[in-house]
Design goal:
about 290 residues, alpha/beta, D-Maltodextrin-Binding Protein, domain 2, 2 domains, five-stranded mixed β-sheet, 11 helices, 11 strands
């Protein structure tokens, strides 16, 4: 469904406390933190937000539940994909003039900055509370700080690791450890750079001797941990905590060498409509693809 700029703005303001942002006077902003009544009424008529995210499904479902308590009249249509795949999808849809997402959430600042021309400027209601050092772009606003932990299946691991370096021990070999590959997104790159800088350039070679199983993102790795297909895995705390809370046999700890932290996930406001040239214009299509590549 394509929306005009006006209708997109209306849905934006009525759609979410996290996304809504308009240049309202201070008093009006306090009285209408999610947007003026007429815009919220427009959101009721629209009734849907298409939300692209690289975050974990379980985590985002918690956010959506909280959102729908405040806005039960707006349905969230969530599309979840690993970071690299999500960026590819956005670029492909945008190049074809069919970008379906209203809101995009991603962990890699660099990749999102490449796409910022697709987005509108905005400022969330609490914009004044943000530290200038965490701001990415007027089009991209931080959402949450993510920290890495080590999790293990407590039903299967009787002598659990106690540090990052323990993940190189032969006793955890033969595919017991699961690892998310570096190109999966910004959060994993943070962990990889931490390993190189803090644990040493030989850390990966040492860990390779344990023959870890590789996963494209944390979602399948965490599911495999619960099922017992792997027994130990470095994972972002927010995904394994929800599984532990729901009864999975998991234990989680922050290793003593340090906790790699991704400095806040950028979330974009609704992508702006793209003006498409006539279908016969191959030159225009080429320029558009070049801008997005």
């Amino acid at each position: 469904m394509k929306l005009s700029l006006t209708r997109r703005r209306a849905l934006q303001a009525g759609g979410s406390a996290a996304f809504a942002a308009f240049a309202l006077p201070a008093r009006a902003a306090r009285e209408n933190p999610f947007g003026p009544p007429d815009l919220i009424e427009a959101a009721k008529k629209e009734g849907k937000i298409v939300y692209y995210t690289a975050n974990f499904t379980e985590v985002e479902q918690e956010v959506i539940k909280a959102f729908n308590k405040r806005f039960p009249f707006v349905r969230i249509e969530m599309v979840r994909a690993p970071g690299g795949q999500l960026i590819t999808r956005i670029k492909t849809e945008a190049a074809a003039g069919k970008l379906a997402a209203d809101v995009i959430d991603h962990s890699d600042r660099g990749l999102m900055l490449e796409l910022q021309d697709l987005f509108q400027d905005y400022a969330p209601p609490n914009a004044a509370d943000y530290l200038p050092s965490v701001l990415v772009s007027p089009k991209l606003w931080p959402r949450v700080t993510l920290g890495w932990s080590i999790a293990y299946n407590s039903a299967l691991v009787k002598n659990p690791p106690k540090s990052w370096l323990d993940l190189t021990k032969p006793e955890y070999g033969n595919g017991q450890i699961g690892q998310v590959i570096a190109p999966s997104g910004g959060t994993t790159w943070t962990r990889i750079l931490f390993e190189r800088k803090i644990l040493g350039e030989d850390y990966w070679a040492k860990q390779a001797t344990t023959k870890p199983r590789l996963y494209p993102s944390g979602a399948p790795a965490s599911d495999a941990l619960v099922r017992g297909e792997i027994t130990i895995a470095p994972l972002l705390y927010n995904i394994v905590w929800t599984k532990k809370r729901d009864g999975a046999p998991l234990e989680i700890f922050f290793p003593p060498e340090g906790v790699p932290v991704t400095p806040m996930r950028p979330r974009s406001r609704r992508p702006r409509p793209i003006r498409m040239p006539p279908s016969s214009s191959s030159t225009g299509a080429s320029r558009r693809k070049a801008r997005l590549s």
